[in-house]
């Protein structure tokens, strides 16, 4: 039986596109799909409507928290959409610590309660992603 695909929405700052693409590549190697704005949006698309549509179609959000991403308003919008839909949100820290993110007054309480990953721990996320899809497959049989 084919493994059911999960779709992971990757939220990041534009300057972090290369890192976000690496994360997407790993997710694809796990057998899943991603939404990455620089890859999946076309000129002329209604950005906000496409973000909402893609969020609806995604099973979880992977957020790349960097010092420059904290000022990106769409990052916070995307987090709010997933939080409101009660979907999984996974935060990855790169260039800042959990302590710095939590201390920032702009950081919502919902994010402060998450178990955040350092970028060097991201392999554990990919392993968990594989395990979630295997568990999903066994419950669908």
Topology (elements, then pairings):
Blueprint (H helix, E strand, L loop, with lengths): L6 E5 L5 H13 L3 E3 L1 H4 L6 H11 L2 E6 L7 H12 L3 E6 L4 H6 L5 H4 L4 E2 L3 H19 L1
Parallel strand pairs: 1-2, 1-3, 3-4, 4-5
Poorly predicted runs of 5 or more residues: none
Largest sheet: 5 strands, parallel
For the termini, the CA-CA separation is 9 Å
Going by CATH, the homologous superfamily would be Toll/interleukin-1 receptor homology (TIR) domain
Q: Helical residue percent?
A: 40-55%
**In terms of quaternary structure, what is this?**
single chain
Number of DSSP E strands: 5
Per CATH, the class reads Alpha Beta
- Work out the helix count: 7
- Domains, number: 1
Strand order of the largest sheet: 2-1-3-4-5
Which structural class matches the secondary elements?
Answer: alpha/beta
Query: Based on CA inertia axes, which overall geometry fits?
Result: globular
Strand content: 15-25%
Q: Determine Rg (CA atoms, Å).
A: 15 Å
Let me know the average pLDDT: 86
CATH fold title = Rossmann fold
By CATH, the architecture is named 3-Layer(aba) Sandwich
H/E order of the elements? EHEHHEHEHHEH
List its salient traits:
5-stranded parallel beta sheet, Rossmann fold, alpha/beta, 7 helices, 141 residues, 49% helix
Brief summary:
This protein is 49% helix and 16% strand. It is of the alpha/beta class and 141 residues long.
């Amino acid at each position: 039986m084919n493994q059911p695909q999960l779709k992971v929405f990757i939220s990041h700052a534009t300057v972090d596109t290369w890192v976000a693409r690496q994360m997407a590549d790993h997710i694809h190697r796990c057998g899943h799909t991603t939404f990455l704005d620089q890859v999946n949006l076309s000129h002329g698309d209604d950005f906000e409507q496409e973000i909402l549509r893609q969020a609806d179609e995604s099973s979880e959000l992977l957020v790349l928290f960097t010092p420059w991403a904290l000022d990106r308003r769409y990052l916070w919008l995307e987090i709010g959409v997933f939080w409101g839909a009660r979907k999984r949100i996974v935060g990855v820290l790169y260039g800042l610590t959990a302590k710095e993110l939590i201390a920032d007054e702009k950081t919502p309480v919902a994010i402060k309660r998450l178990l955040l990953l350092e970028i060097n721990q991201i392999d554990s996320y990919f392993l968990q992603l594989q395990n979630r899809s295997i568990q999903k497959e066994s419950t669908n049989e």
